Amino acid sequence: MSPQPSPLDSLTQPQSIPAQPSALPQVWQSFLHGQSQALVQAGLWRTIETLDSAPGPTVTIDGRELILLCSNNYLGLATDPRLVSAAQAAAARYGVGSGASRLLSGSTPLHGQLEQRLAQLKGSEDCLLFGSGYLANVGTIAALVQPGDTVLSDRLNHASIIDGCRLSGAQIVVFPHGDLAAAEQALSQARGKVLIVTDSVFSMDGDVAPLAELVTLADRYGALLMVDEAHATGVIGHGLVPSLGLSGRVPIVMGTCSKALGSLGGFVAASRLLCDYLRQRARTFFFDTALPPPVLAATLTALDVIAKEPERAIRAQALATRLYHGLVQLGLSALPPRAAIVPLMCGPAELALSLASALRRDGILALAVRPPTVPPGTARLRLCTMATHTDAHIAYILDCFARHKDLLRRPPTPSAQPQ
Ligand SMILES: *Cc1c(COP(=O)(O)O)cnc(C)c1O
Question: Which residue's CA is minimally distant from atom 7 of ligand 1?
Fold first, then answer.
């Protein structure tokens, strides 16, 4: 006699469920449709590229090899065999997932080791890991300031900073990009506890914040300064803060393991008091699953590599400078790189898109950055060099820009719009 079918069978036996036409309530259907149409019409509809290869200096998409010119894997470490084998070994020993928040059962010795190494890198007393840089910013800012407090934020700060500020409920004062007079004016009127937060290298303009001056201002007004080193860590030495000799003068240094370090994760390097407070109060730490062991092992190895091979950062930066000078010689409005980001200003989104498509036909992947990532009218190609690009790659890229430069006749102005 065959056993009765059990209700569990449908869970354990793979079966293909035909896709159902979505039954959304009419009001939602029209909302989503209308929003999508508007994005398409404004040239702002995004598509997601699927790479069929590892994110090296070249990648494969639909069987075609393209030079990758828009990755934050600045040092080429995401595909480094040493990181890959460290991740494999950690997976074999600890598994691929951590299974829970650090506060439950998700913590491994690798978490503590990496926190210690990052604290050393940044010259801080302690360090706290988060699942990503995004989560680090959101959780830290929201834990530190509350309604009644004030947070000062540079107009071009990363979205994760903006979201942290909004979530905190504190009064947000957005000061014009790098404008110290405006920041001081806001400080003189600020209520409650005051946090100043800024990117060190700005992700879309590739320029840097006036950190020494912000340190002085923060000291003068008793404000807490938090600096996001996502694009500087591992590219400008250990970060812009240490490069400027400001270690110990910036109480909160945030960074990510997802860019130059080739892996994944965010962190806050700060005093033990502050990190311990965040362990208790940062909700994106508390309620988020711990980073998986292979990722931690890869980051630990990345820290060894950047210590042993400083030439990687130097090369990524030198190639960015070479690309910038080449573009300027062609009469294009590139912004000077301080790390490995070369923004090429295009103005209207359509121009950025047509330049990106022309490059794509030449075998170069350089995606257009459009609003809302950047202010309206300042669409651009955000070109990123990698230590693993060859000289021939850069020469070829510049040849292609020389052929397409007439696409960009209208000279645009750099970012100057509200967030
Ligand atoms: C990328 C980025 C982040 C977020 O880091 P992830 O690890 O990618 O989540 C935060 N701040 C800045 C300035 C960034 O560019």
Answer: 133
pLDDT of residue 265: 98
- Identify the bridge partners of residue 369 per DSSP, sorted by sequence position: 380
> 71: CA distance to ligand 1 center in Å?
13
From the CA of 33, how far away is ligand 1's center (Å)?
Answer: 30
- Residue 318 has φ and ψ, to the nearest 5°, of -65, -40
Cα(179)–Cα(223) distance, integer angstroms: 17
Residue 352 makes CB contacts below 8 A (sequence gap 6+) with 346, 368, 369, 370, 379, 380, 381
Strands 379-384 and 341-347: antiparallel
What are the counts of helices (DSSP H) followed by strands (DSSP E) for the chain? 15, 13
The confidence band for 416, taking pLDDT boundaries of 50, 70 and 90, is very low
Tell me: pLDDT of 418 over 90. no
363, amino acid identity: G
Mean of the per-residue pLDDT values for the chain? 93
Active-site positions read 203, 231, 259
Lookup: tokens for 330: 């062609």
- How far, in Å, CA of 191 to CA of 354, rounded? 47
Name the token pair of 161.
Answer: 């900073």
Q: 330 vs 22, 68, 369, 398, 409, CA distance in Å?
A: 50, 21, 21, 9, 12
Band (pLDDT 50/70/90 cuts) for residue 70 is: very high
The first and second tokens of residue 109, run together, are: 């010795």
Rounded CA-CA distance 364/66 in Å is: 5
> 386 C-alpha to center of ligand 1: Å?
17
From 254, 256, 288, mutation site for ligand 1 pocket: most ligand atoms within 8 A of C-beta: 256
Gap between the Cα atoms of 414 and 333, Å rounded:
9
Ligand 1: which residues within 6 Å by Cβ?
132-134, 137, 158, 160, 199, 203, 228, 230-231, 256, 258, 266
Ramachandran assignment for 323, one of left (phi > 0), alpha (psi -120 to 50 degrees), beta (any other): alpha
99: left (phi over 0), alpha (psi -120 to 50) or beta: left
**pLDDT of the residue at 95:** 97
Q: Using the Cα atoms of residue 107, residue 110, residue 116 and residue 117 in order, give the sign of their dihedral.
A: negative
